[in-house]
């Protein structure tokens, strides 16, 4: 039964990702040209992430930062991060930088729905329980992505975005990722895709499944002493 479910999920991913790419291909071409013209560097960013069973892969995004951004700061990115390009801020705000990950779905590195893939640094911190997250294919969206839909805004103003991420976001993110790992199906995937679309349209949208977890707490100057 699990094998049948995996094949059904994979078929669903391929059909929907291919259809979405066909529809948005003109937009992708426009963004690619704008990214190339707006600042020096490649159109795409290939971020090293940890995938299914701990296998590393290159997660694709439109480049939103200056060249060599990884050597200039950490993986957490605030809205006021000086590494962001002007176009990059816009793309991140509306999640347009993530669209190339539809190619990752076709390649089999990612699924439409699944825990967002992490950098090795944070995977190395997983507890034995949290290692369960690596037993399912990482995805473009999941419950945690809906709960924390605008991470850059949460981190804005922090002197240490990495530590702020670890304290304000990561604990609940891991809880929600484990929730998906332990209770996922095509029906759940469809529900998450629906709520993701609703969240993109209305930032205040909160599915009933996420109400027990509250809203993600934004960084504030008042919390500076604890960060």
Map the helices and strands.
Blueprint: H1 2-38, E1 44-50, E2 56-62, H2 86-93, H3 101-107, E3 111-113, H4 120-123, E4 139-141, H5 143-147, H6 151-155, H7 161-182, H8 186-201
Parallel strand pairs: 3-4
Antiparallel strand pairs: 1-2
Helix pairs in contact: 1-3
Detailed description of the structure:
It is a single chain. This protein has 227 residues and is mainly alpha-helical. It is 46% helix and 9% strand. It is built from eight helices and four strands, in the order αββααβαβαααα. It has a two-stranded antiparallel sheet with strand order 1-2. Strands 3-4 form a two-stranded parallel ribbon. Strand 1 and strand 2 form a beta hairpin. Helix 1 runs antiparallel to helix 3. The longest helix has 37 residues. It is globular. The C terminus is likely disordered.
The total beta strand count reads 4
Give the helix proportion (percent range). 40-55%
Low-confidence stretches: 221-227
| SSE topology string | HEEHHEHEHHHH
Record the strand order, biggest sheet.
1-2
Structural key phrases:
227 residues, mainly alpha, two-stranded antiparallel sheet, 8 helices, 46% helix
Summarize, please.
The chain is mainly α. The protein contains eight helices and four strands. It has a two-stranded antiparallel sheet with strand order 1-2. A two-stranded parallel ribbon has the order 3-4.
């Amino acid at each position: 039964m699990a094998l049948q479910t995996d094949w059904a999920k994979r078929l669903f991913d391929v059909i929907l990702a291919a259809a979405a790419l066909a529809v948005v291909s003109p937009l992708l071409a426009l963004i690619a040209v704008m990214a190339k013209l707006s600042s020096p560097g490649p159109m795409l960013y290939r971020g090293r992430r940890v995938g299914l069973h701990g296998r590393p892969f290159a997660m694709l995004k439109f480049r939103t930062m200056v060249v060599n951004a990884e050597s200039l700061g950490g993986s957490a990115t605030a809205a006021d991060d000086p590494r962001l390009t002007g176009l990059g801020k816009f793309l991140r705000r509306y999640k347009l930088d993530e669209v190339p990950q539809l190619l990752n779905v076709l390649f089999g590195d990612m699924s439409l729905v699944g825990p967002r893939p992490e950098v090795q640094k944070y995977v190395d911190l997983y507890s034995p329980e949290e290692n369960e997250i690596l037993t399912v294919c990482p995805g473009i969206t999941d419950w945690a992505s809906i709960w924390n839909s605008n991470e850059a805004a949460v981190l804005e103003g922090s002197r240490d975005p990495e530590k702020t991420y670890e304290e304000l976001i990561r604990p609940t993110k891991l809880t929600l990722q484990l929730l998906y790992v332990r209770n996922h199906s095509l029906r759940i995937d469809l529900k998450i895709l629906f709520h993701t679309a609703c969240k993109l349209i209305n930032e205040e949208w909160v599915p009933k499944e996420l109400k027990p977890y509250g809203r993600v707490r934004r960084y504030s100057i008042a919390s500076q002493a604890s960060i």
